[in-house]
């Protein structure tokens, strides 16, 4: 990385983030568990198989249509555990507060954390609070770490996609990104768009009841679906072909994207997952997803191929074909 | 709590912090694991006994004599796990970076994280990076969460002090607080004072080799030794009598405290612990501590009594006797 200063793009979840992680975390820490770079760390050895993950939340604004920084922080960490197939057990909460933050806001956020943790069925088992001077942070930042337990026999990883796999998306994309940006910019769309922030552990449990043989699961947050698919293609050394017409996008999101110049493929989602499953299991997994609250609009969106390893190819709605690249630079700072 | 805005004192580790935790965390989350409010959460049930903790670090300046925010973040979480008797296994690293942070600083900090995690023998198994706009955070904040494993039969808790227990302190107090404040204020003392930041898991292991029957361990960080002792007295419902003359304080720290108007009892320590052990085990535990790198200057400093439950009484060096209260308000913002 050429630059000697942190840029906003380093937090984007796209190419700069990837470079930063490669040049920092993987440079300093060559532990094989970390190098897996999945959403949760799965600790080797006893006791059984424990998953352990962390995420910090710096979203602006802290309250937005459909959620707030508290629900986002719980759901995000629950989802990171779920994406390796772990059942979330417990989370911790690390708060960094700006001097002057209204106490009412803090109570409202913690009540939201409580509701979300109850919905997900995780315990909040530890907390820490730091306060910095007015102007040294922006209102509130939340870190949630989480531990979960993995059943035996699961091997879900971004590096595990195989030619022939069917790619399933759990629902519409772009809702969170548009909900936040519309609030931030003070834009009123005809129909309200709300964030999709939600815990996905129930959805994942319903999928794993069908089969333990799920190859990959990812929640396409920062960087959007395009970036997640590219990471999977690269780590698995396969090609991924996506049918644009099969991707669920709400009309209001399409309309907002047209107006604001965004591409829904790069917008953050906070309650969606993409799964890669063997063709023999795809129909049953899709059925199970559609029967689960947060998978009602699940759809098969593509296929894994041997050609073009490391690349994502989009069959466009108008009959063309193009490369769908990972996010480059920063699209929307502080989206989560 | 009357105030409706966050004050710096809410991050002090003293009375306001305690109130904030009581009115926020314990209000919103009534889980019995969280309510224990020890340094680490010990998760009930399988697998075996897992400890899980989190801490955020917002120290200013990020580099200081004897350490930096990276070593502090690793050691602090290692020590939180150690204080319940858990052997630290793995930590995660959540970074919040200010746009414009020099990349060299970040590399230096991560190299320090690596050295510290190697010394403590913990894996760094996960990370997350967020970046906020210049002016929305101050350089870098780090959250470290940690998991550890507890041997069977340990029941170390701040609520477990018993009348007759001997109070042992692992070494001198006030070093971290004075090292940071002298750097912050640009004060040069005759002899350099460096932070005591250090991992205490080796020291704790040497103590547990002597006996599993340790009643309480705490690392007196924010709020200092006085605040930790008060919390133990209150949670255990016992009185604690401390001999001021027995407390190790470095001459340079005493000198700096005199000059700056600080009391070493309230200064943060980042590599010290206080242990409450049955009298029958005290001599052997003290011996073991003195044989360990970070316990060389360990000393017996007091005793648990039935009188004055919830209070800490100081037998002063000049022959008087006074109540040693918990820290009230904010002493030094952003000391860790």
Which properties best describe this structure?
homodimer; 31% helix; 336 residues; 23% strand; five-stranded mixed β-sheet; alpha+beta; globular; seven-stranded mixed β-sheet; 14 strands
Written description of the protein model:
Two copies of one chain form a homodimer. By secondary structure, chain A is α+β, with helices and mostly antiparallel strands. Helices cover 31% and strands 23% of the residues of chain A. Chain A contains ten helices and 14 strands. Chain A has a seven-stranded mixed beta sheet with strand order 9-11-8-12-10-13-14. In chain A, α7 (201-210) packs across α10. At the A-B interface, α1, α2, β2, β5 and α5 of A face α1, α2, β2, β5 and α5 of B.
Helices and strands, with pairings:
Two copies of one chain form a homodimer.
Chain A: H1 15-23, H2 25-28, H3 32-35, E1 41-43, E2 50-57, E3 63-64, E4 67-68, H4 69-82, E5 87-98, H5 103-120, E6 123-132, E7 140-149, E8 166-169, H6 175-185, H7 201-210, E9 216-218, H8 224-236, E10 239-243, H9 251-260, E11 274-277, H10 279-290, E12 299-305, E13 312-315, E14 321-323
Parallel strand pairs in A: 5-6, 10-13
Antiparallel strand pairs in A: 1-2, 2-7, 3-4, 5-7, 8-11, 8-12, 9-11, 10-12, 13-14
Helix pairs in contact in A: 4-5, 7-10
